Amino acid sequence: MSRRIVTTQLQATEGASPKTVDGYFDRLVKYIPADVVGLWLVGVGLINTFLGTTKAVVMIVFFFVCLGITIWWTYDQTREPQKVPAKTQITVAAFAFVIWVIALQGTDIRDAFAWYKPAIGSLLLLVYSTVVARKVPKEE
To answer: What digits encode the pLDDT tens for the residues 62-100?
Structure first.
């Protein structure tokens, strides 16, 4: 099953199995890189066993690794023959990953980012999740 957002009825009728046009909630689910957020949570759980300054450095490196995986994974999951890459969906998923990291209070990112406040992340996640699913990609 492709995670690519279906934006038109013409796209929905292409291929062997007919699909429906993705609505607001379908787009919201497809924009969130839940698998990489899960990877982040497990990785941070391991990183939190480190002590000292190494912890912050490892967390920052792991953040950028996961961000790269988000971009690659979303590209791979949305790729379809004879279609342009789903650039909008890839970009939105990358930003969503960043906001999820900021919002996940249990990840203890205060060690890496001094400005971090849990309420900032929670508000960002609420606003981003509400607004972003209204974005319908132009790629077909």
So the answer is: 999 999 999 999 999 988 888 888 898 999 999 999 999
Residue 129 domain flag: yes
Contact 30, 89 (CB under 8 A): yes
Helix (H) or strand (E) holding 43: helix 34-47
Model-level pTM? 0.82
Number of domains in the chain: 1
Residue 139 domain-assigned? no
Query: Residue 92 is part of which domain span?
Result: 56-134
- Is 17 inside a domain boundary? no
Distances (CA, A) of 124 to 82, 99, 117, 119: 36, 7, 11, 8
Query: How confident is the model over 90-105, as pLDDT tens digits?
Result: 999 999 999 998 888 6
